[in-house]
Amino acid sequence: MTEKIQELTTYEEWVEAFPIMHQLRPELTLERYLILLADMRKDGYTLYAFFKNKQIVAVAGISWRVNFYSERHIFVYDLVTDETYRSCGYGEKLLTAIQQLGKENGAHYISLESGIQRSDAHRFYEERLGYEKWCYSFRKSLLIDQ
Questions:
Q1: Distance CA 46, CA 71 (A)
Q2: S-S: 45 plus which of 5, 16, 27, 40, CB 3.0-4.6 Å?
Q3: What is the DSSP letter of 86?
Q4: What does the DSSP 8-state code read for residue 84?
């Protein structure tokens, strides 16, 4: 069994990753995913994949950010393992590699957000990987009057 982690940089790789990303973001169509991905990449978004036997089994989308409270850090926007391979440790290996990338490149933190309803994911981040819950994240739609 061969395993590797690599940045996805080509159209073909992005299309190959879409079915897994779609499991996390079911509202996305392939067309919308590709349009948003192109725009996000201009803002520093990078997509990584964990390959098992030349097949993508997990993906993570990250950006390098700087702010007053986390200084230089990696923000993980997306992390998902194909449902067929969940609980096999691939998401953990991918996130651990991203953490190492951060350490090697001067990041002070790695941070992410997770939907309120995703209690299994929260347990994974806190108990398996040592993340701490330290704030709430809020948003308000600007597309419709509230």
A1: 19
A2: 40
A3: T
A4: G
76-97 confidence digits (pLDDT tens): 999 999 999 998 999 999 999 9
Q: Residue 126 contacts by C-beta under 8 Å, 6 or more apart in sequence? A: 132, 133
Global confidence as pTM: 0.88
CB 51 within 8 A of CB 3: yes
What is the DSSP-derived secondary structure letter of residue 142?
S
Neighbours of 65 (CB within 10 A): 15
Largest interatomic CA distance in the chain = 53
Residue with tokens 């990696």: 74
Residue 59's contacts (CB-CB under 8 Å, 6 or more residues apart) are: 8, 17, 20, 21, 47, 48, 49, 50, 78, 79, 80, 94
The one-letter amino acid code at 47 reads: L
**What is the rounded CA–CA span in Å between residue 55 and residue 110?**
26
Residue type, 97: A
- What is the Cα–Cα distance from 102 to 58, expressed in whole angstroms? 19
